[in-house]
Amino acid sequence: MVLFENQDYKRIQMPEADKKIQAYLDEHIRNIPDFPKPGIQFKDITPLLLDPESFKSIPVELVKPFQGDNIDYVAGIESRGFLYGTIMASVLGAGFITVRKPGKLPADTIRAEYELEYGTDELHMHKDAIKPGSKVLIHDDLIATGGSAKAAAELIKKLDGQVAGFSFIMELSFLNGRNKIDDFGPVKSLIAYD
Ligand code: AMP
After folding, report:
1. Closest C-alpha among 169, 172, 129, 127 to residue 147
2. pTM above 0.90, yes or no
3. What pLDDT is attached to residue 9?
4. Which residue puts its alpha carbon closest to atom 11 of ligand 1?
5. What's the pLDDT score for residue 7?
6. Domains (ranges, CATH) in the chain?
7. 118 CA distance to ligand 1 centroid (A)?
8. CA distances (Å), origin 18, targets 116, 177, 189
9. Counting atoms of ligand 1 from 1, which one is nearest the CA of 144?
């Protein structure tokens, strides 16, 4: 979790994403002020998960910019990236890769570090997760600083995979996370806060 104090998190319109979906997300994503610490606005997707309709519409919207790109795998970042990520894979006819925190994956892994507010963390992927040359779409619920998404992209590259792009439900634009990852591929999100 990346923590940033005193931000207002104003919703901005995303010209590329469907307006109805943006309004739907506004209704179903809950803002929890001061969680997990004072000054942080936590964007809680649990109300979205309660609505069965979300499992139909959200994954379809998330993969729309990548339809026709022959995606082989969706890589979901632990743990909220798993929730809609597997359905995205199903919509695309692709496999699913779990990008996980240390100590979770049972077989041999590769690792990539990223910076937190204090110190570093790392993400892991199984060494045999993909075949070289595979096209991988990276997904998480939210991009903040982009550190974890960048680590996921590095893992894909280490295994000689191709990063097809990134698809997030939400983006905290004021943190400029997309600048950290847009060298790897196109970055899309359905709604943004600035
Ligand atoms: P980052 O690596 O900085 O892009 O952080 C992204 C990860 O942190 C995602 O897995 C998010 O779920 C989580 N995250 C960061 N900030 C928030 C926030 N304000 N509300 C909800 N989740 C957050």
Report:
1. 172
2. yes
3. 87
4. 142
5. 57
6. 58-193 (3.40.50.2020)
7. 15
8. 32, 22, 11
9. 4
* Stretches in the chain below the pLDDT threshold 70: 1-7
Q: Is 177 in the pocket of ligand 1 (CB under 6 A)?
A: yes
**For 64-92, b where at least 16 C-beta lie within 10 A, e where not — what string?**
bbbeebebbbbbbbbebbbbbbbbbbebb
Task: Indicate the helix (H) or strand (E) that contains 24.
Answer: helix 19-28
Rounded CA separation 180/57 (Å): 28
Whether 110 and 158 have beta carbons less than 8 Å apart is answered as: yes
Residues in the chain: 194
Q: Note whether 100 and 124 are within 8 A (CB).
A: yes
* Contact yes or no for 11/19 (Cβ under 8 A): no
Query: Which pair of tokens denotes residue 125?
Result: 């992927």
Q: Dump the DSSP string for 53-121.
A: THHHHHHHHHHGGGTTS---EEEEETTGGGTTHHHHHHHHT-EEEEEB-TT---S-EEEEEEE-SSSEE
